[in-house]
Amino acid sequence: MTKYMLSAHSGEDRTPPPMSQEDIERVTKQVLALEQEMKEAGVWVFGGRLHAPDTATVVRVSGHEVITTDGPFAEAREHLGGFYVLETDDLDAALAWASKVTSIVGAPIEVRPFADLPGE
């Protein structure tokens, strides 16, 4: 089994229209049901939704000094809005789950396998 990250990307050009409270509740219910389906299928490892990029703090090293900066890593039109880590038999299975996610959230889903470290 391979672990895959399914990342949902949001961006300026894909800003959804404001949702009614009823729509928010409907989408939330669908997301929670899909997450339960993932757990019951035994593929769920971890997942989460993220706050807006302006809540980020970047930590980097410059010379021998560690510096923190408020805000996103880089100005970008897209940002990571949330993700799932799933463990599936193959890429096709991960893509099938990604299809379900994008159908609910409406955002593009990038699917990437985790790299194995030497000796694992």
UniProtKB/TrEMBL annotation:
It comes from the Bacteria. Signal peptide: none annotated. Residues 1-23 are annotated as: Disordered. InterPro entries: Dimeric_a/b-barrel (IPR011008), YCII (IPR005545). Pfam families: YCII. Residues 15-100 form the YCII-related domain. PANTHER family: BLL7171 PROTEIN, BLL7171 PROTEIN-RELATED. Belongs to the YciI family. This is YCII-related domain-containing protein. It comes from Actinomadura rudentiformis. The lineage of its organism: Bacteria, Bacillati, Actinomycetota, Actinomycetes, Streptosporangiales.
